[in-house]
Amino acid sequence: MRQILFLILLSINLLLDAQVPTEVSLQASASTKVVLHVDTPQFVGSGIDRVVEDFSTTLRKDLQNSGVFLLSTSSLADKKNMKERGIDWSLTYIIGETESGYEMKAQVTDAGSLNVIHEVKYQFGVLAIHNYAHILADDMVMWLTGERGSAFSKITFARQTKPGVKELFQMDSDGENISQLTKWGSLTIAPSVAKDGRILYVTYKSGSPEIWGQKSVGGPHEKLFPYDLKDRPAFCSSPIWAPDGRRFAFVLGDAQGRSDIALYDLKTLKVRKLTFNEGINTEPSWNPSGTQIAFTSNRGGGPQIFLMEDDGTNVRQLTFDGAYNASPSWSPLGSMIAFVSRFEGKFDLFIFKLTDGKSYQITTGVSSNESPSWSPDGRSLVFIGSRSSGGAIYRSDLSGASVLPISNLGLCQSPVWSIKN
Amino acid sequence: MFSNRLALSVISTSLLLQLACSKPTPVPVVETVVAEAPVVDMKAAQEAEMKLKLADEVRQKAEQDFQEAKTKAMTNIYFDLDRAIIREQDKSSLQTLANFLRSYPQIKVQISGHADERGTNEYNLALGNKRASATVTYLKGLGIDESRLQSISFGKEKPLCNESNESCWSRNRRAEFTPIN
């Protein structure tokens, strides 16, 4: 019944968002979540209790972060009583050793009918334990909503390693498996990740800002702009892959202090300016189909969010409330734009719903919250919060009710959430 | 003139003959030459040393003057929140920098624009570029060739301080000057 209630509530929200029928509601709350009981995992074999513990911890964290499940804390001796205890689904899984690694079988039982409604089996090596816990969590979300979750995904970010030096890092969506992507020993910032995993960023390794990235999947990091030294601009920043991965938008600055949005085509090596405005135009963000760009401009005075077509036409202002609105990030399904708004020197996260033309405040805190980026499933935002260790990475659901630290690392900036390949 | 030379020659010859007959060894002549030479070189060396010392003092003074002028000229200037306009109180600093660059025409300068924490990373990079560019434009107006002025923006990536108060924010909203030889 609870599942049906969830789907009904979801459907109501979807009907309200008729333009983009699959985006999740901003007003998700505990009452719309399916209550899930996760059985104590069973295991077969000796010495794999640690594996099972790792798997179980990762899975529970993912399910809690999914935004659609509420984990039951009841201990169940008899499954017949599940419904009376408010439980909708029960997840049972068993992990056993195989010749090459491990095998995991999982089953979901409906608490009302006591029928097994979903089951799956995976085999994996010891290094893939966390990945398969993420994959099972995403399966659970898909079985419930019809769309995969974002547990099996990664977050790329810049972090200060010593004064004046920042490098790029990557980690799983739960903060595990941190790896360093660059070691330029210089200011290296503003990462963007293409759908196929290719990275793009700005580094000052030569003394002035240049855009570097990967032309091919798994390929070396190469200088992409300026292609020719004679084209060296006064300034370049904020590169972001277009959804097709064949071009990127970025900010091109001139000696007069103007900053304009431009496109760079990897095939033709041509730069095309899209804005020709006095002042600052920055922070481009593509819509999912790659036909429009949201950006920040101070053309009306203070910074506000604007939209335009990808050829620079049809420029229109999106935000009007507040003196400083910036950092637009277009949602994966296209109907919302996350941004930050400054009040008394601190930033909070907002979401602009294109379907109703209204802004919704997500965070309200004494600390600053910056650089929002959407989870691949569009149900969460990752951002930089200054709550504790100054520049740590947090996630929030779209209601702002559940704000959680992803990592305790400080001195981080510009997180980008992307699928894992 | 000719008779004097002849007389001198005769006297010298007779003296040499007398010496040759009375004392058989001519060594003293050689000794005189060896003994006198170091006296002449010492003076030259002392003079050369004095000149070198003087030159070194002049060089040191010039270097000291350069360093003092450089320190005075490379003084940060500051900006109001979200603005990139040169403030009245900073114009004398830029005049000092322009004078320095005129005095030392071989020097180029990097002008870096910075911002405080109360802006987004990317917007502040653009704002830093605007601040650096405004500073370049002002120095060009004071007659400094653009080829000697190199602008760069660091936005809020390289703060001087990290406290969240106006005192720190105002220090971070700056243009910094670094000489490039």
Describe it for me?
The complex is a heterodimer of chains A (421) and B (181). With 421 residues, chain A is mainly beta. In chain A, 12% of the residues lie in helices and 42% in strands. Chain A has helices spanning 2-16, 49-65, 129-145, and strands at 34-38, 42-44, 69-71, 89-97, 102-110, 116-124, 153-162, 165-172, 179-180, 188-193, 199-203, 210-214, 221-225, 235-241, 247-253, 259-265, 271-273, 281-286, 292-297, 304-309, 316-317, 325-330, 336-343, 346-353, 358-361, 369-374, 380-385, 392-397, 403-405, 412-419. In chain A, the strands form seven sheets. In chain A, strands 1, 2, 3, 4, 5 and 6 form a six-stranded mixed β-sheet that branches. A four-stranded antiparallel β-sheet of chain A has the order 9-8-7-30, with no helix packed on it. In chain A, helix 2 (49-65) packs parallel to helix 3. Chain A is globular, with a radius of gyration of 23 Å. Mean pLDDT of chain A is 90; it is low at 1-22. With 181 residues, chain B is α+β, with helices and mostly antiparallel strands. Chain B is built from five helices and four strands; from the N terminus they run ααβαβαβαβ. Chain B has helices spanning 2-22, 27-73, 91-103, 121-141, 166-172; strands spanning 77-78, 108-114, 149-155, 174-180. Chain B has a four-stranded mixed β-sheet with strand order 1-4-2-3. In chain B, helix 4 (121-141) links the parallel strand 2 and strand 3 (149-155). In chain B, helix 2 runs antiparallel to helix 3. Residues 1-33 of chain B have low confidence and may be disordered. The chains are: A mainly beta (421), B alpha+beta (181). The interface between A and B is medium-sized, with 41 and 29 residues.
